[in-house]
Fold this protein.
Amino acid sequence: MFGAQQVFVYHRSSNISSVLDFYVKQGFVTVIPWNVTAIEKGLGNRMRYGYKRLSLQNDCVLRNIHRFKYLLMHDIDEAIVPYLHENYSAMMQSFPSRAAYRFSNAFFPRVFIDNVTVYENRTGDKDGRMLRYKPVALLATKRLYVWFGGGRWKMIIRPEKVNLMTTHSAINATSVCAVLPTEAVLHHFRQGRPIYIRRNMVLKRHFLETRMYHFKEKYLARLETTEKMMKKSGIAWP
């Protein structure tokens, strides 16, 4: 939707769902089996998790040096949302030339998610596709504060200019641009209730954030087209 040319999914098993396989056959997704169990033996739980992340992220960097100009690194429940531009290409052209670009995180807890009626009352929009698809990125409008600091960033990098990637930073990047929250923010659609979400639920500290409404038509049209293509291929819509 924002202009990514290719998506790399690191998968613990070689067995993938029919939905993911559909995107693979479209040429948009590349699935890379990634099982490092043998190397993990003897490591504690936190170290195992960290090792998996570190190994797959740096594999992605090394695979794509000189193949893509930019790599965007984030989880499947996250999206970097441009606030001043329509897509990533226009956004990146507006930034100064750097080795890495750091985006602040904002949690959108799924326990706060709106139902479609709330959306319709807020916008006056009675689009039936909202009820059909119930898109989380459009219905999750209650965010917590933006983490401009604190290390919860995610990155867009120039792969040939970064020596090592960790979950939230580019180590030894020759230069880093801290993207302002007014320009773009990482939307993290967080499942569960970790302590920082429970604390804000008790205090009722959350803010209305509707930037994704701007992309609604593009988002729903893409869902609609994908559903039709999947049905033609004999794949049930999830």
Q: What stands out?
A: Residues 69-232 form one domain.
